[in-house]
Amino acid sequence: MTLPPPGGAVARADHAAMTRVAAYHEVQEVLRSSRFWPSMFVRVSGPLLEGTLMTLSVGEHLRRRRTEVVMFSRAQLMVYEIDTVVPALRELLEAAFDGDPARVRVDIMRIMRDALLRVTAKVVGIDDLHGPDDVDELRDLAEHFGEGSSAEWATRDPGSVVAAAVAAKDRFGERFFRPALERRRRLLTAVERGEIGPDDVPNDLTTLLLRNYGDWETEKLLREVIFYVTASANTTTHLAPHVLREVLGHLDAHPADRAKVGDLSFLQRTVSEGLRLHPTVPALLRLALGDVELPSGRRYAAGEQLLLDLNAANRDESVFGPTADVFDPYRSLPTRTAAYGLAFGDGAHTCLGRQVAVGAGNGSVERDDVPAGVLTRLLQEVLRYDPALDPDDPPVFRDNTATMRFARFPVVLRARPSARHAAPTGCPVHAG
Q: In angstroms, what CA-CA distances link 242 with 110, 177, 272, 280, 408?
């Protein structure tokens, strides 16, 4: 059931004029070099994302990254996984059985997205997410952010896509961000006065930004938060159905592995393999800041724009073997090669969300009370309901982007797990 690789990484006319880099190790060398600037998010999406973490040069990027990485401690990752995404997903899946329990058909993409929105709220610091209307509004805004951040790959006018995303930014600012910002300012002031302790202030992005960059203009703070909304809600949502489709196909072809659908190590490997085959964007773009010669001997001229073809690099047979196009969670990998390939980039600009999405990603989860990744937990919960593709309503790809994203992903839920078969919803890390 492996999807074929997209037809090249070219979406815009100017992509064809860029220098395409497709070999895994050469792409990795570029990503690890400080001589290239990540240009993708500002070429088209600048009005939405310019100045955010993934648009910065190496020095400034590392300084800001060190500030924000504390959101992804072991304890915080477990909050995202066990206390947030698992109960939200169970609530949504159980609600699907309120109708005819013998015929449960759902768009699993919508359900997974709504569960992941709860994680997004925790990560960035959204307080006003109490009911379905709030979730619907945040979902709509996050969709616009996702469209705007990936406008580089839009198949319609990218300017109108970004304009709609900027309008959504303004709505998000008024509805969600500014109230959260003001609340945290009051809490931090109370800490300074000794009225409350530091632990009484949420550990989220908005708080961290205020503590470290309190002199920033509100617009700059807002953009950084929107970048994380896009990464944690929109991007992960579009990865999840690809992984599920690959896993369902694998289980059909290898029925003995159905006994492993509760094994977090196995599931983590399946998630990583799915991400390798289906990176969030077809390519990453880098601009050479000067004349560069890489360890491989390949040279680039100052100002040269590179298109790093992730689809090709992650299917490089010299790294992933002759079956590189095939989904195989048992794949043997060269030493120090990530199971997810370059799906999260590499080097200084490796996506901070990797730990949130898939943990270590190497299938080394030995206990349920250690981080495994929200995608791993998501997959574990969905598989408890024995999902299958709906033969009368197959998945549909979107036609407005070259990023191979689903518009809908209908499934049939064939089982309703009993409470005694539920996976744990708490873990010792939160005791006390």
A: 14, 31, 11, 10, 12
Q: Which of 347, 370, 346 is nearest to 360 (CA)?
A: 370
Partners of residue 57 on adjacent β-strands: none
Determine contact, residues 123/356, Cβ cutoff 8 Å.
yes
- Please state, in angstroms and rounded to a whole number, the distance separating the CA atoms of residues 31 and 33: 6
Distance of CA 289 to the CA centre of its chain: 28
Tokens representing residue 233 in the block: 């809600």
CATH class of 13-422: mainly alpha
pTM score: 0.90
pLDDT tens column, 109-155: 999 998 998 899 999 999 877 778 888 999 999 999 999 999 999 98
Q: What is the CA radius of gyration of the chain?
A: 21
Name 20's bridge partners: 307
pLDDT band for position 23 (cuts 50, 70, 90): very high
Q: What is the pLDDT of residues 317-350, one digit of tens each?
A: 999 999 999 999 999 999 999 999 999 999 988 8
Q: List % helix, strand, coil for the chain (3-state, nearest 5).
A: 55, 10, 35
Specify the amino acid at residue 144: H
| 350-to-58, 81, 142, 293 alpha-carbon distances in Å | 11, 21, 22, 22
Cβ proximity of 91 and 228 under 8 Å = no
Q: Are strands 292-293 and 104-107 parallel, antiparallel or unpaired?
A: unpaired
